[in-house]
Design brief:
This protein is an alpha/beta fold. It is built from seven helices and ten strands.
Protein backbone atom coordinates (compact mmCIF):
# COMPACT_ATOMS: atom_id res chain seq x y z
CA UNK A 1 0.00 0.00 0.00
CA UNK A 2 2.84 2.41 0.80
CA UNK A 3 4.38 1.86 -2.63
CA UNK A 4 1.03 2.42 -4.39
CA UNK A 5 0.41 5.56 -2.36
CA UNK A 6 3.84 6.84 -3.28
CA UNK A 7 3.22 6.26 -6.97
CA UNK A 8 -0.15 7.99 -6.71
CA UNK A 9 1.32 11.00 -4.95
CA UNK A 10 4.16 11.05 -7.44
CA UNK A 11 1.71 11.17 -10.34
CA UNK A 12 -0.17 14.05 -8.74
CA UNK A 13 3.08 15.88 -8.13
CA UNK A 14 4.13 15.39 -11.76
CA UNK A 15 0.79 16.67 -13.04
CA UNK A 16 0.97 19.67 -10.74
CA UNK A 17 4.50 20.41 -11.87
CA UNK A 18 3.49 20.20 -15.53
CA UNK A 19 0.57 22.55 -14.92
CA UNK A 20 2.77 25.00 -13.04
CA UNK A 21 5.44 24.86 -15.73
CA UNK A 22 2.96 25.46 -18.51
CA UNK A 23 1.45 28.43 -16.69
CA UNK A 24 4.90 29.80 -15.84
CA UNK A 25 5.68 30.11 -19.54
CA UNK A 26 2.76 32.47 -19.94
CA UNK A 27 2.58 34.34 -16.64
CA UNK A 28 3.98 37.56 -18.04
CA UNK A 29 2.00 37.31 -21.26
CA UNK A 30 -1.25 36.58 -19.44
CA UNK A 31 -1.12 40.07 -17.96
CA UNK A 32 -1.81 41.48 -21.42
CA UNK A 33 -5.17 41.61 -23.16
CA UNK A 34 -4.07 39.11 -25.78
CA UNK A 35 -5.81 35.77 -25.81
CA UNK A 36 -4.07 32.44 -26.20
CA UNK A 37 -5.37 30.14 -28.93
CA UNK A 38 -4.97 26.40 -28.44
CA UNK A 39 -4.94 24.77 -31.88
CA UNK A 40 -5.28 21.00 -32.20
CA UNK A 41 -4.66 18.88 -35.31
CA UNK A 42 -4.68 15.10 -35.42
CA UNK A 43 -2.05 14.40 -38.08
CA UNK A 44 1.30 15.72 -39.26
CA UNK A 45 -0.12 16.71 -42.65
CA UNK A 46 -2.70 18.87 -40.85
CA UNK A 47 -0.38 20.53 -38.34
CA UNK A 48 2.66 21.10 -40.60
CA UNK A 49 1.37 24.16 -42.53
CA UNK A 50 0.44 25.94 -39.30
CA UNK A 51 3.74 25.06 -37.67
CA UNK A 52 5.57 26.48 -40.69
CA UNK A 53 3.57 29.71 -40.37
CA UNK A 54 4.36 29.97 -36.67
CA UNK A 55 7.11 31.92 -34.94
CA UNK A 56 7.96 29.28 -32.33
CA UNK A 57 9.37 30.54 -29.03
CA UNK A 58 9.64 27.22 -27.22
CA UNK A 59 8.41 23.64 -27.20
CA UNK A 60 7.27 21.54 -24.27
CA UNK A 61 6.57 17.81 -24.10
CA UNK A 62 3.75 16.69 -21.82
CA UNK A 63 2.19 13.20 -21.85
CA UNK A 64 4.10 12.37 -25.01
CA UNK A 65 2.68 15.38 -26.88
CA UNK A 66 4.83 18.20 -28.28
CA UNK A 67 3.33 21.63 -27.65
CA UNK A 68 4.65 24.49 -29.80
CA UNK A 69 4.34 27.88 -28.11
CA UNK A 70 4.69 31.10 -30.06
CA UNK A 71 2.94 33.46 -32.43
CA UNK A 72 1.04 33.22 -35.69
CA UNK A 73 0.87 36.78 -36.89
CA UNK A 74 -0.04 38.86 -33.86
CA UNK A 75 -1.79 36.03 -32.04
CA UNK A 76 -0.37 33.97 -29.20
CA UNK A 77 -0.74 30.28 -30.04
CA UNK A 78 -0.10 26.85 -28.55
CA UNK A 79 -0.11 24.35 -31.42
CA UNK A 80 -0.15 20.57 -31.01
CA UNK A 81 -0.61 17.36 -32.97
CA UNK A 82 -2.83 15.15 -30.81
CA UNK A 83 -2.91 11.94 -32.84
CA UNK A 84 -5.99 10.21 -34.22
CA UNK A 85 -9.05 9.43 -32.10
CA UNK A 86 -11.16 10.88 -29.33
CA UNK A 87 -9.03 9.81 -26.36
CA UNK A 88 -5.92 11.41 -27.86
CA UNK A 89 -7.90 14.54 -28.66
CA UNK A 90 -9.41 14.81 -25.18
CA UNK A 91 -6.04 14.29 -23.50
CA UNK A 92 -4.52 17.02 -25.63
CA UNK A 93 -7.37 19.47 -25.07
CA UNK A 94 -7.24 19.00 -21.30
CA UNK A 95 -3.50 19.68 -21.22
CA UNK A 96 -4.07 22.87 -23.21
CA UNK A 97 -6.75 23.99 -20.75
CA UNK A 98 -4.99 22.91 -17.56
CA UNK A 99 -1.31 23.48 -18.27
CA UNK A 100 -1.43 26.33 -20.79
CA UNK A 101 -4.63 28.04 -19.67
CA UNK A 102 -5.74 28.71 -23.25
CA UNK A 103 -8.63 31.10 -23.84
CA UNK A 104 -9.90 29.51 -27.06
CA UNK A 105 -9.75 26.00 -28.54
CA UNK A 106 -9.67 25.46 -32.30
CA UNK A 107 -9.72 21.99 -33.82
CA UNK A 108 -8.82 21.89 -37.48
CA UNK A 109 -7.95 19.34 -40.13
CA UNK A 110 -9.80 17.14 -42.60
CA UNK A 111 -13.09 15.26 -42.45
CA UNK A 112 -15.49 13.17 -44.47
CA UNK A 113 -18.99 14.28 -45.36
CA UNK A 114 -22.21 12.28 -45.79
CA UNK A 115 -23.90 15.35 -47.31
CA UNK A 116 -24.16 15.02 -51.11
CA UNK A 117 -24.21 18.82 -51.48
CA UNK A 118 -20.69 19.12 -50.05
CA UNK A 119 -17.63 18.22 -52.10
CA UNK A 120 -13.95 17.61 -51.48
CA UNK A 121 -12.03 20.72 -50.46
CA UNK A 122 -15.10 22.51 -49.06
CA UNK A 123 -14.97 23.93 -45.54
CA UNK A 124 -17.30 22.87 -42.73
CA UNK A 125 -17.48 25.01 -39.60
CA UNK A 126 -19.11 23.52 -36.51
CA UNK A 127 -22.22 25.00 -35.00
CA UNK A 128 -22.24 22.04 -32.62
CA UNK A 129 -20.48 18.72 -32.12
CA UNK A 130 -21.75 15.29 -31.11
CA UNK A 131 -20.31 11.87 -30.22
CA UNK A 132 -22.00 9.76 -32.92
CA UNK A 133 -20.66 6.55 -31.34
CA UNK A 134 -22.06 7.27 -27.87
CA UNK A 135 -24.95 4.84 -27.47
CA UNK A 136 -26.54 4.24 -24.08
CA UNK A 137 -30.02 3.77 -25.54
CA UNK A 138 -30.57 0.45 -23.66
CA UNK A 139 -30.45 2.55 -20.48
CA UNK A 140 -33.04 5.01 -21.76
CA UNK A 141 -30.72 7.71 -23.07
CA UNK A 142 -30.94 9.25 -26.54
CA UNK A 143 -28.42 8.45 -29.26
CA UNK A 144 -25.32 10.55 -28.70
CA UNK A 145 -26.33 11.52 -25.17
CA UNK A 146 -23.60 11.16 -22.58
CA UNK A 147 -25.29 9.50 -19.56
CA UNK A 148 -26.16 11.81 -16.67
CA UNK A 149 -25.04 14.94 -18.54
CA UNK A 150 -28.49 15.72 -19.98
CA UNK A 151 -26.99 16.87 -23.27
CA UNK A 152 -26.29 15.51 -26.72
CA UNK A 153 -24.67 18.43 -28.53
CA UNK A 154 -21.78 20.65 -27.52
CA UNK A 155 -22.41 24.15 -28.85
CA UNK A 156 -19.62 26.00 -30.62
CA UNK A 157 -19.03 29.63 -29.74
CA UNK A 158 -21.17 31.86 -31.98
CA UNK A 159 -18.54 34.58 -32.30
CA UNK A 160 -15.86 32.06 -33.28
CA UNK A 161 -18.21 30.49 -35.85
CA UNK A 162 -18.89 33.89 -37.40
CA UNK A 163 -15.20 34.76 -37.41
CA UNK A 164 -14.31 31.42 -39.00
CA UNK A 165 -16.89 31.96 -41.73
CA UNK A 166 -15.58 35.45 -42.49
CA UNK A 167 -12.03 34.06 -42.59
CA UNK A 168 -13.05 31.22 -44.91
CA UNK A 169 -14.79 33.59 -47.29
CA UNK A 170 -11.66 35.73 -47.64
CA UNK A 171 -8.91 33.10 -47.47
CA UNK A 172 -7.03 31.49 -50.35
CA UNK A 173 -8.99 28.25 -50.74
CA UNK A 174 -9.76 28.40 -54.46
CA UNK A 175 -13.36 27.55 -55.34
CA UNK A 176 -14.05 25.75 -52.06
CA UNK A 177 -17.39 26.60 -50.49
CA UNK A 178 -18.20 27.18 -46.82
CA UNK A 179 -20.83 25.32 -44.79
CA UNK A 180 -21.93 25.45 -41.16
CA UNK A 181 -23.55 22.66 -39.19
CA UNK A 182 -23.18 19.68 -36.91
CA UNK A 183 -19.88 17.83 -36.85
CA UNK A 184 -20.14 14.22 -35.64
CA UNK A 185 -17.16 12.41 -34.14
CA UNK A 186 -16.43 8.78 -33.38
CA UNK A 187 -13.57 6.33 -33.20
CA UNK A 188 -14.29 5.03 -36.69
CA UNK A 189 -13.19 5.88 -40.22
CA UNK A 190 -16.54 6.25 -41.97
CA UNK A 191 -16.51 4.63 -45.40
CA UNK A 192 -19.88 3.27 -46.43
CA UNK A 193 -23.67 3.46 -46.32
CA UNK A 194 -23.88 0.97 -43.45
CA UNK A 195 -21.93 3.41 -41.28
CA UNK A 196 -23.30 6.70 -42.58
CA UNK A 197 -27.02 5.84 -42.60
CA UNK A 198 -27.55 5.76 -38.80
CA UNK A 199 -25.31 8.80 -38.30
CA UNK A 200 -27.28 10.82 -40.86
CA UNK A 201 -30.60 9.59 -39.45
CA UNK A 202 -29.72 10.54 -35.88
CA UNK A 203 -27.62 13.68 -36.30
CA UNK A 204 -27.67 14.91 -39.95
CA UNK A 205 -24.06 16.12 -39.74
CA UNK A 206 -22.24 18.18 -42.34
CA UNK A 207 -18.99 16.39 -41.53
CA UNK A 208 -17.79 13.24 -39.78
CA UNK A 209 -14.36 12.81 -38.20
CA UNK A 210 -12.60 11.33 -35.18
CA UNK A 211 -11.64 14.10 -32.73
CA UNK A 212 -13.85 17.20 -32.70
CA UNK A 213 -16.58 16.20 -30.24
CA UNK A 214 -13.99 15.08 -27.68
CA UNK A 215 -12.31 18.49 -27.89
CA UNK A 216 -15.71 20.18 -27.67
CA UNK A 217 -16.53 18.06 -24.61
CA UNK A 218 -13.34 19.15 -22.84
CA UNK A 219 -13.93 22.76 -23.87
CA UNK A 220 -17.42 22.61 -22.36
CA UNK A 221 -16.09 21.11 -19.11
CA UNK A 222 -13.47 23.86 -18.82
CA UNK A 223 -15.80 26.66 -19.97
CA UNK A 224 -13.48 27.46 -22.88
CA UNK A 225 -15.07 28.61 -26.17
CA UNK A 226 -14.33 26.40 -29.17
CA UNK A 227 -14.87 25.99 -32.87
CA UNK A 228 -14.08 23.13 -35.25
CA UNK A 229 -12.92 23.96 -38.77
CA UNK A 230 -12.64 21.05 -41.19
CA UNK A 231 -11.98 20.71 -44.90
CA UNK A 232 -13.53 17.77 -46.71
CA UNK A 233 -11.24 14.99 -47.92
CA UNK A 234 -13.82 12.33 -48.86
CA UNK A 235 -17.53 11.54 -49.11
CA UNK A 236 -17.59 8.99 -46.26
CA UNK A 237 -18.69 6.32 -48.74
CA UNK A 238 -17.16 3.28 -50.39
CA UNK A 239 -14.71 5.48 -52.29
CA UNK A 240 -13.35 7.08 -49.11
CA UNK A 241 -10.33 4.77 -48.64
CA UNK A 242 -9.09 5.81 -52.10
CA UNK A 243 -10.16 9.48 -52.24
CA UNK A 244 -9.03 10.29 -48.70
CA UNK A 245 -5.26 10.06 -49.35
CA UNK A 246 -5.68 11.77 -52.73
CA UNK A 247 -7.48 14.84 -51.37
CA UNK A 248 -5.79 14.92 -47.95
CA UNK A 249 -3.09 17.48 -48.93
CA UNK A 250 -5.63 19.85 -50.52
CA UNK A 251 -8.07 19.57 -47.62
CA UNK A 252 -5.33 20.03 -45.02
CA UNK A 253 -4.05 23.11 -46.83
CA UNK A 254 -7.54 24.63 -47.01
CA UNK A 255 -8.30 24.09 -43.32
CA UNK A 256 -4.97 25.64 -42.31
CA UNK A 257 -5.56 28.61 -44.62
CA UNK A 258 -8.86 29.35 -42.89
CA UNK A 259 -7.32 29.16 -39.41
CA UNK A 260 -4.43 31.42 -40.43
CA UNK A 261 -6.86 33.94 -41.92
CA UNK A 262 -8.97 33.79 -38.77
CA UNK A 263 -5.97 34.55 -36.56
CA UNK A 264 -5.03 37.47 -38.83
CA UNK A 265 -8.41 39.12 -38.26
CA UNK A 266 -7.64 40.34 -34.71
Amino acid sequence: MKKSKGLWLGSLTALGAAASLGRFFYDKQRNSDKKTYGIICAMESEVAPLREAMDINRTKEISGLIFYQGMIGRQRVVLVQCGVGKVNAALCAEVLCTCFDVDILINTGVAGTPDPQIRQGDIVISTQAVHHDMDATPLGFAKGEVPDMDMIYFQADNDLVAKARSAAETSDIGDARVFEGTIASGDQFIAGEEQTAPIVKNFAPKAVEMEGAAIAHVAWANKVPFVIIRSISDNADGSAPLSYPEFLPIAARNSCAVVAAMLAMD
